[in-house]
Amino acid sequence: MSILIKGGTVLSSTGSVRADVVVEGERILAVTAPDGWAGQADTVIDATGKYVLPGGIDGHTHMEMPFGGTASVDTFETGTIAAAHGGTTTVVDFAVQAKGSSLLSTLDKWHEKADGNCAIDYGFHMIVSDVNDGTLKEMDACIDAGVNTFKMFMAYPGVFYSTDGEILRAMQRARGNGGTIMMHAENGIAIDELVAQALSEGRTEPVQHALTRPPELEGEATHRAIQLAKVTGAPLYIVHLSAMQALAEVAAARDTGQNVFAETCPQYLFLSIEDLAKPEFEGAKFVASPPLRDKEHQPKLWQGLRTNDLSVVSTDHCPFCFVEQKELGRGDFSKIPNGMPGVEHRMDLIYQGVVGGELSLSRWVEVTSTTPARMFGLYPRKGVIAPGSDADILVYDPEATQVLSAETHHMNVDYSAYEGMRLKGRVDTVLSRGRVVVDGSGFHGGRGHGRFLSRELNQYLN
Amino acid sequence: MSILIKGGTVLSSTGSVRADVVVEGERILAVTAPDGWAGQADTVIDATGKYVLPGGIDGHTHMEMPFGGTASVDTFETGTIAAAHGGTTTVVDFAVQAKGSSLLSTLDKWHEKADGNCAIDYGFHMIVSDVNDGTLKEMDACIDAGVNTFKMFMAYPGVFYSTDGEILRAMQRARGNGGTIMMHAENGIAIDELVAQALSEGRTEPVQHALTRPPELEGEATHRAIQLAKVTGAPLYIVHLSAMQALAEVAAARDTGQNVFAETCPQYLFLSIEDLAKPEFEGAKFVASPPLRDKEHQPKLWQGLRTNDLSVVSTDHCPFCFVEQKELGRGDFSKIPNGMPGVEHRMDLIYQGVVGGELSLSRWVEVTSTTPARMFGLYPRKGVIAPGSDADILVYDPEATQVLSAETHHMNVDYSAYEGMRLKGRVDTVLSRGRVVVDGSGFHGGRGHGRFLSRELNQYLN
Amino acid sequence: MSILIKGGTVLSSTGSVRADVVVEGERILAVTAPDGWAGQADTVIDATGKYVLPGGIDGHTHMEMPFGGTASVDTFETGTIAAAHGGTTTVVDFAVQAKGSSLLSTLDKWHEKADGNCAIDYGFHMIVSDVNDGTLKEMDACIDAGVNTFKMFMAYPGVFYSTDGEILRAMQRARGNGGTIMMHAENGIAIDELVAQALSEGRTEPVQHALTRPPELEGEATHRAIQLAKVTGAPLYIVHLSAMQALAEVAAARDTGQNVFAETCPQYLFLSIEDLAKPEFEGAKFVASPPLRDKEHQPKLWQGLRTNDLSVVSTDHCPFCFVEQKELGRGDFSKIPNGMPGVEHRMDLIYQGVVGGELSLSRWVEVTSTTPARMFGLYPRKGVIAPGSDADILVYDPEATQVLSAETHHMNVDYSAYEGMRLKGRVDTVLSRGRVVVDGSGFHGGRGHGRFLSRELNQYLN
Amino acid sequence: MSILIKGGTVLSSTGSVRADVVVEGERILAVTAPDGWAGQADTVIDATGKYVLPGGIDGHTHMEMPFGGTASVDTFETGTIAAAHGGTTTVVDFAVQAKGSSLLSTLDKWHEKADGNCAIDYGFHMIVSDVNDGTLKEMDACIDAGVNTFKMFMAYPGVFYSTDGEILRAMQRARGNGGTIMMHAENGIAIDELVAQALSEGRTEPVQHALTRPPELEGEATHRAIQLAKVTGAPLYIVHLSAMQALAEVAAARDTGQNVFAETCPQYLFLSIEDLAKPEFEGAKFVASPPLRDKEHQPKLWQGLRTNDLSVVSTDHCPFCFVEQKELGRGDFSKIPNGMPGVEHRMDLIYQGVVGGELSLSRWVEVTSTTPARMFGLYPRKGVIAPGSDADILVYDPEATQVLSAETHHMNVDYSAYEGMRLKGRVDTVLSRGRVVVDGSGFHGGRGHGRFLSRELNQYLN
Ligand SMILES: [Zn+2]
Ligand SMILES: [Zn+2]
Ligand SMILES: [Zn+2]
Ligand SMILES: [Zn+2]
Ligand SMILES: [Zn+2]
Ligand SMILES: [Zn+2]
Ligand SMILES: [Zn+2]
Ligand SMILES: [Zn+2]
How far, in Å, CA of A238 to CA of A226, rounded? Predict the structure, then answer.
């Protein structure tokens, strides 16, 4: 079964070329000059006037994630179908170690959740909540099992929180085994005190979520994580960076050549504390951690994407319905489940950066696909249109328009954080490992197509 | 005429893939999975065990350049043949406006020198020595003529030097027409005073060249150029950065997202002031500006290449023979012609950084080919192995070894700055626009094959 | 003749004490606990409820200064009388070397202007406009003559401007002889180009003075001066710092322990580019260089005073009448004489910083008196209330109020830059070398009382 | 009872004057020009050729401090007598809250220890080990009781350690009541992990104390404390700063005008990790926290003293005998009591900085006396030679020499950290509140003379 994608402009992280792409089975067989293919093709996709780019890689999602007695509402099936609709063909989700359990049994559990249910390929990061001798040894086994990125939390005391000593130990292990430590960098100990003060003073509305998590405490934790990484020699990847203070710390470390990397998310680029302050508890829709910030942070984040101090855009997709889930926090913002939906809109939203002059076309491809592929050990299988690579391909129509809405999105959640937002550009066709899963006539993929990706190590390490 | 390069590992700035490359005429027709090409090929090159990468682009050479009454000794013919031997398939040389002459007539003159004489493709930057209303208008015409990078000098008063006011005017013009200002950033006014003091005190040996050009004065000029660029909004490219102080200025500007870029050269990575201090006037071989620095700068420069605060490695190839040319400065270091040979060894020398763990393979390709292609508006025609691109291809043997020597090099100069240096890796085969110019049996190219490259604008501008 | 100042609060740069001050002749004989003086006094001044502090030292004035065919309108007599009214008992004025003349003859000329005419003590800085072998040697002689601070200009090409090479030479000399280089740090070469462009485009109004002198060009020159000082090892004092960019450069240098110091002036703390933009040519009243800046610079300058990155407040008093002098620039802002009146109001204006919580009382004394005394080699003769010190004493009433106006000021100029400004605090009594020159009943001093101060070297050098 | 100190050079933090000092009872009555005193004196001290300066203020001592089952060996009596011998006339010691006890009862207990036992005046800081609602309220009461500086620990988990949440709460309280938070800034959580690893690997010798407390973890904690102070608005004083990384954080914060201050100690200026590595367990003598650092930190600390990023030199005097106390840690460095003797030698040691060109005379006075007086709310009662001030006076002989040794020192400890060190300068005469306690004939003071100092608030707050 072969497919020829003809007439398009093939994008990479370095630029664009007019070229045709030949897919044979699950992989790309060749990239040729226009009309340069000497062989036959079973199917021809006309990409005239369109961009042909590697499918998006969302390095940060939470499907079916337990949180505070409830769980995020997208299953691996619904979440990956939504991702595919948005041009994302790979997600890396987080397996979540519960205190007292082992990493490998956790990984088994997450395999059970995902296996046979995903519409696109997927990998796992491992959230390490419980650092001990056993866990540390298991980190090596996780790496053998294709999971070499270990997320830790400086926030959420009593839940995911690790002490600086535990972080140090995990970093030492990562230094030895080639893993990368991912960090939720907020000073949760200080934040919990501010939260308690707010509640005791009757400040209970959603905007307090942001007011009790000041950006300085994200900057602080980022600095601390960087120093611990320096002491141990471990690679460090800061997840969901939202604050200019944290960005400044990352930039300073990167200037010294330290293996420090960071991602941001669309919500920090497009939304702000003003959304959290919406009346009638609507602000709850925007509760995630770190919180949405003052608008002054947004241009700094776009700048960070340009300077590569922010290397990746992920979504931190973690959807909770407004009804019954977000509503758990009426009268107590600290009980609002933390998380926002977004896996479907990342490619489109960041493309708005191209439209608005914030990013180049090639940088769009880089931050949404090529860099996550390299960072998470998937390149060149993913993240590039190249012979031998998986045929995860997005044909994107740069001239189409669309309006985001919960009415039309495919995520299993009852609201959109971007309701009514008008966008330029739209997904035209999506291939996942050689199969056309989305095209103008609808969705042709489904659960079970997606396979687990055993990942190699971070390719950016100095 | 088609060529199939089979069995190799194709390198790009993002990684490597096992792939075959199909060349048809002057261009790459296709890149396919191993054995994936469905058509025929007239010639097959076996690249098994070898790297297949885009030919090197040396963005800074001076062939036949007049300097202080003499001229650099490589002609466009000898210099480009030497480049080809070293795996470089494009050079961007500098047309040099003499005071009082026009830019366009200068360009004509350089076309005359180069046309029909080059063995590989070439482009021009324009050295602007004389800023006036006429020159500024001509900058626009230069851009139309494919020359959009304008080098200015903060050094060499009375020769190439421009005042800050002249630089400001040229930058304003570049801001308007899309050009990029290239800067030789040393405070030549202060340096000339130090030189005069040295001579008047009888300090005349070659090492005084470095002692009278302290790194702080490169850092200073770099800062000044950056501020003038900020005031005017012009893109700025710092040539031949040699000092950590200058690097720090570039890094600080880049952190703010300003369009500031920099290159360094192999001599600053591998040689030092100790070479300048060699006895018997041998130090004269190493006189170039900025001067070779203390060794402590070298690890900072490698780090800058990793952090991308240094984006490009060029050679500043400007060879003068030791006999009769360098010797002009016996008894007065200020009369030693400034410049060193190097165009032939850039790919090999920077590959030593890969061998030594300083750079990744993909970064080697990036700093020597892909980034210069993008920076100088040649991408994707050059700088990448992609369909439609010129078939400028380097097949590199990573396991071979070689020893550098004036006895064996192809540059038209009577010494090597790296005499006796033992290297790992060696050029195997070189294609220039589809023609095999170097292979195991010798050199098959020659003058006249190389064509002028009318260049697009810098592709890195924010 | 002895005076006892009783009942006041004596201020120093470190705090305040309730104490009595005994003056005998021209000097302070003793400072005692309240009522602690065992001897007699001819006169008793009741300072109850008032501050007793060292008389102000204005380290930057221009009396009778030639500028562009005219001259500043305060003579040494009128200017020093105005200073005394404002609580300033020492000025350090600038002798101005004309191109082609010698430093010592210049100094003679300024002695002639000042001798016998000043109402308070005075010293000189030397403006070096013409650097050559002779001048450099004369710098040593100036130091012997009590003038060890040498001002140079990076602005005003063709007038006061020195090249970086000339600055380097002067700095080398200062490094050797203990002098301090004072710098007007603006990139005048670039500025002159911007000025020419403005005029050629018909932008001629006073606000263009600021728009053609962007703060980046003050930051740039400040950085450059600091680097030249670093290369030479010379102490550097940045005069009339106005821009946050320049302040950042000074702060960075000071963090490294380099001998770099800076002053700002009241006009940069209280006035802004909005004043320059006043209609009907009124903006001309506010033309000085560096220009008044956007208001956002003001809080940064106050902060610099708190952090001691700005160590001194001087006035750069250089008054030109609006009528006939400022008016020379109608239709061409570049012809407006550069300078503003201010010598009379410095103590009062900076005291407003105390009132407004910007500075502590002790910091007020420090930046207006103690630090200039130490910086300019006058301490402990001046700048402190201590036994043996000159009895230059200001009794200040912190509760009085006043309104500034050209109607009431004593400067010989037809406008006030602070017309109508209401202040808290007022000069009560002023002693100059033991003589009461100002008290509630009026002015009792006069020309001839002030003596030339042969100054020691800068006391802050590391 | 009056004393006249005649013929000396009186030093202050701004310079020196030839002056006589008149003491009446416990206070300074007058400072006069030489021979300027009109009254009589009971006693005359000849200070010809000597410096007369305010007695030293050691803002950081631990007399009789419980630590790990033992206690520091100097009692308030022996420790203050030793201090007096070294020219220090005020100490501020630390009351140590035990977990579960109250601040006020702690203060009572420390008053009991000290009252009637001290030879010189003394104050208290309060170590807050147990933050809770009651403690926070007590902080206000402590301030009323003259104790407004609250030390907290980011090190020593399980002992003095406070969490970031507890620190935040205490800082909020300090923001409200005017107190200053003093911080032991080392990341004790991470350090304890490194210590455990060292012990488990059999690395037990004293030098491991330093190796398990890397300077990055002092820099980290310093940054964290500064951010918490920024979030809360509290003044912050970093105690015993030892590492250049921590200094850089303090300097950066101070550049922004934040109320951040720091002290260092003589041991960090003169001793190094090489002392900790001395064989035969002798390194144990030098175990204190933070640990002695590599020598490369020393010039940075001296520079910090010059730039005022380090404002104070205290001793952290906390002596444990080598025999039986330090020896508790044979075979386990973590059991070595943390602390070194030093209260006696601070004035002499820092004077070596004057001798060696590191500090000016006035800076010597400033960092050892005037600044601690202002920082700890004792000025002008202490820290200056001024009328009305306590007659705490040090007459210092700059030309005498001495050799430090346990044989001759007055501290109650069996070793000297500076054994055999030869110094220039020596204490001549010491007055404590008007009483000559040390002179050439010996010690004339004794327990009971020293009084508790109820301190005002920090006088440096912006
Ligand atoms: Zn997440
Ligand atoms: Zn150059
Ligand atoms: Zn950077
Ligand atoms: Zn060059
Ligand atoms: Zn600073
Ligand atoms: Zn001036
Ligand atoms: Zn401590
Ligand atoms: Zn302590």
Answer: 9
Residues of chain D neighbouring A163 (CB-CB closer than 8 A):
189
In sequence order, what are the residues at sequence separation of 6 or more whose Cβ sits closer than 8 angstroms to the Cβ of residue A280? none
Task: Give distance in angstroms: CA of D455 to centre of ligand 5.
Answer: 28
**Is residue C114 domain-shared with residue C195, that is, in the same domain?**
yes
Together in a domain, C34 and C119: no
Residues A320 and A438 in one domain: no
- Asked whether the predicted pLDDT for residue C1 surpasses 80, the reply is no
Give domain status of residue C382, yes or no: no
Partner chains of D (3+ C-beta pairs under 8 Å): A, C
Report chain C residues whose CB lies below 8 A from the CB of D308: 308
Tell me if residue B217 falls in helix, strand or coil: helix
What single-letter amino acid sits at D407? E
CA distance A58 to A87: 10
Residues C143/C179, Cβ–Cβ less than 8 Å: yes
Does C309 lie in the same domain as C191? Answer: yes
Average pLDDT over residues C356-376: 98
Helix (H, G, I), strand (E, B) or coil at A37: coil
In a shared domain, residues C128 and C200: yes
The reply to whether residue D19 touches residue C360, judged by beta carbons under 8 angstroms, is no
Task: Flag if C223 and B228 touch (Cβ within 8 Å).
Answer: no
Q: Which residues of chain B are modeled with pLDDT < 70? A: none
Q: Is residue D275 part of a domain?
A: yes
User: Domain with A44 in it: what CATH number?
Assistant: 2.30.40.10
pLDDT per residue as tens digits for the range D127-160: 999 999 999 999 999 999 999 999 999 999 999 9
Does the residue C350 lie in any domain?
yes
Residues B395 and B273 in one domain: no
Do A81 and A96 lie in one domain? The reply is yes
pLDDT value of position B71: 94
Q: Which of residues 39-78 of D touch C (CB under 8 A)?
A: 39
Q: How far is the CA of D106 from the centre of ligand 5 (A)?
A: 38
Decide if C381 is inside a domain. Answer: no
| Chain B residue with the nearest C-alpha to that of C154 | B164
Where in the sequence is the domain holding C413, given as residue range(s)? 2-53+387-443
Of D54, D53, D60, D184, residue with least CA distance to D123: D60
Tokens at B19, concatenated: 């792939």
Of C16, C374, C387, the CB nearest to D17: C387
Residue B25 contacts A where some CB pair is shorter than 8 Å: no
> Domain end: C329, C348, C375, which one?
C375
- The pLDDT confidence band at residue C219, using thresholds 50, 70 and 90, is very high
Q: What is the pLDDT of residues A25-44, one digit of tens each?
A: 999 999 999 999 989 999 99
The answer to whether the Cβ–Cβ distance between D190 and A219 falls below 8 Å is: no
Please report the pLDDT score of residue B1 as a whole number. Answer: 77
All residue ranges of chain A with pLDDT < 70 are none
- Residue numbers of B between 280 and 309 with CB closer than 8 Å to A: 303, 306-309
- The owner of tokens 């940064």 is C300
Q: Is B388 on the interface with A (CB under 8 A)?
A: yes
One domain for residues A46 and A59: no
Residue type, D443: F
pLDDT at D409: 98
- The backbone region for D388, taken as left when phi is positive above 0, alpha when psi lies in -120 to 50, beta otherwise, is left
C360: chain D residues, CB-CB within 8 Å: 459
pLDDT at C462: 87
Can you tell me which residue has the tokens 């003797």? D341
Domain count, chain A: 2
Distant-in-sequence, close-in-space partners of C368: CB < 8 Å, separation ≥ 6: C56, C57, C313, C346, C347, C350
Cβ distance of D217 and A231 shorter than 8 Å: yes
CATH code of residue D150: 3.20.20.140
Three-state DSSP at B366 gives helix
How long a stretch of residues is chain C? 462
